[in-house]
Every structure is written in structure tokens, then in C-alpha cells.
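cron nightly-structures :: item 1 of 1
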Amino acid sequence: MIISVSGKGGTGKTTVTSLILKALVENTDKAILLIDADPSTNVPLVLGLNLEKTVGEVVNKFRKGLEDGSLAYVAKDSLLEGWIYETLKETTRFDVLAMGRTEGEGCYCYVNSVLASIIDKIEKNYDIVLLDMEAGLEHLSRRTDHDVDLLLVITDTSKTGLETARRIKELTKEVHIKVGKILLIGNKFPPEVEDMLKREAEKIGLKVAGIVPVDENVMTYLMEGKSLLDLPSDSPAFVSVKEICKRIGLI
């Protein structure tokens, strides 16, 4: 099952993704791969993980090797695959793959094709793949298997958050991604605004999966660099995300 979390920058995508991961880890025995597809690579910070390399760093090294000829006499596909597997962070309950940033401009069709096939191969080893996206869907379009079972769009209380949600919905058609279901989640929302969110979401053809309230525990954990996986089970934000996960059939 492929679950993608997207939305406008600053809406709390990584926080919500981490809380979904916590709900999955605590309530299922599924093999989970978390892909940090945002170039800012915030997932390790929020989860208290130390990642030595990102896929982007490996791809940059690979591209330079192609350009300067140092990889002329090696099995390139196997080499890149091995390098990418080295970036995979394994934990006892889930694994993490951070995409990171890539350098340079122009068409790297060969590199992107190999990268897509490797990501597809890695994903097939897991029951659930959870992607923390940037606002665009470029990393989804890099996968040869573009289908996404569930696209969760995170919005805050701003008009721009909803406008970004509308654009993301349209973008799935432009990059030819087949999405099973698209749902909206309001993050840092007061309960009295939920009905308004549902009305605004209906205008852009989206359904609301639920809202996540402002949570002082989350803010404290983020400021102090504590893993959100250690957040108390009765913390309001986690209670809400867990309920959302139940409502949409993830747990």
C-alpha cells in the first residue's frame, strides 16, 4: 500500500507523517518503509534518527562519475543500486529512505530511469510505503509504478493551504499518477473550524479525513529534538491522527 502525504510548505506534513508512522508501528505488524521525499530531509530530525547519506548525494556522485568517465568500466546499474541500499536506514519496526537533493540541470534520463527501477524494487519488500512529500509530486512521477493508494493532503487554516491542495489534486492528472483516494487533513485546527474546512474542501472536490489540533507536547518535542515516536499515547495530536487512521482503514 502506497500512502503519500503532501501539502503546502509549513503545514506540518512531516509531523503528521510521523504521527501516522507511530500509529502504524503501534497498531500493526506490517513491514513499513518511510520515504522522505522532501529535499529538506526533516524526517530524521523529527524521528531522532541519524542518516549518513541520502539518495540525492549518491545520485550526485553517480552523475559525476558518468560525466568524468570514472565509471566507464563498471556495472553502473548494480553500482548505483548498491549505493542506494547503503543509504537505507533500518530500525526494528520500520526502514527509512531519504531522497535528499540532487545537483545540476538538464536531462538525466538514464539516471532517473535506473533510480525509478531501484525505488520500485525496494518498495516491493514492504507492506506499506509512506512518503513524506514536498508540495510537488516529482518523486512520485519518478517511480515506474506511479499508482498511489492514498494521497493525504495536509492544510493549515490558510487559504493558500487549500489552494495548494487544489493544485496537488490537479497535478496528479498532469504527471499521470493514478490515485485511489485523495483526502484532506487539517493540521493545527481548532475543532470549531472543522465544518468550515469541510465546506471549503467540498468546493475543490475533496473530502476531509479529520483534523489535528494544536498540541503543546508536539511543539515541545520538536523544539527539544525528541522523537515524535516517543510522544505520549494520550497526546491530543496523536489521538486525532490515530482516530483518522482508524477511520480511513489504515489500522
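cron nightly-structures :: done
DSSP finds ten helices and eight strands in the chain.
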